[in-house]
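ok posting inputs for the fe (iii) ion job
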Amino acid sequence: MKIRLSLIAFALAAASFAAPAQDKVLNLYSARHYQTDEALYANFTQQTGIRINRIEGKEEELMERIRNEGANSPADVFITVDAARLAKADELGLFAPVKSKVLETRIPAHLRTATWFAFSTRARVIIYNRSALRAEQVQTYESLADPQLKGKLCSRSGAHPYNLSLVSSLIAHDGEAQTEAWARGVVANFARAPKGGDTDQIKAVAAGECGVAVSNTYYLARLVRSDKIDDRRMMERVGIVWPNQATTGTHINISGGGMVKTSKNQEAAVRFLEYLASDEAQRYFADGNNEWPVVDGVVTNNPALTALGKFKADPLPIGMLAKNMVAAQMVLDRAGFR
Ligand code: FE
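and the output
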């Protein structure tokens, strides 16, 4: 009996040693929902032999899930979009610090923290209806509160992370009191109650339902390079302004991720994060999803993205956006920007 048990124990031990080598799997919790990411992951598996087991969900659900799973969480890497959400995940203690020479050399300092990293950037720009307004009227985020835009402004919800991050950057630059006054001005200018996503705002601007709105750049590039002629025609009615070029620069946000604290597979997790900063992966972000690479000098092949041109980006470190996130939410609540 004793011999048999130890034989079984030996067999089990042998199996558990053998298993990882035969079937290397990385559990990726992803709140990115872009079709083009498929190729990005397939390429990683091809290069490393590490299969990616993707668990997709909404940002908040995935964060909650990792938290509930606790020490037993199978999650190795969590990726999502927007600094506001990554900061929240960090605040919940979901990430482990990552020390990687590759990440440190390839990703600029203002686009990473000790625990999470940006892998692509997008800008939040002002869009306007060409027949309703002139570009000169909407050169800055601050101008969106100008009374001359009364009844002309459309927006998605103030509580959405894209807007929270933008307001967070305004607090960093203009202070809380000035930003609250701005938010009140913005609310006073609404053409309609906030609703829909960025693409809905673009459509409403093109249709003339609103004169002005803000949008992330990849939605604009997506419509410009659309197969549908109607989308491309629609974009001819929409003007794009790089906000705050004479002052703080245009607010940029990121997609990014980090290693989950309880990862049982840390080597593969770091390897995956480093892969996302490789030239190849960086090109997928640009050519597939119309986002800018974070790594300098990566050659992309996306005419719609190139056509957007160059601009001065706000150099505020993304970690700083996190600092003002709660203040941003309170400012918007007090101003009635829901
Ligand atoms: Fe988006």
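notes: The chain has two domains: 25-120+253-300, 123-251+317-335. The pocket of fe (iii) ion is lined by residues 216 (CB under 6 Å).
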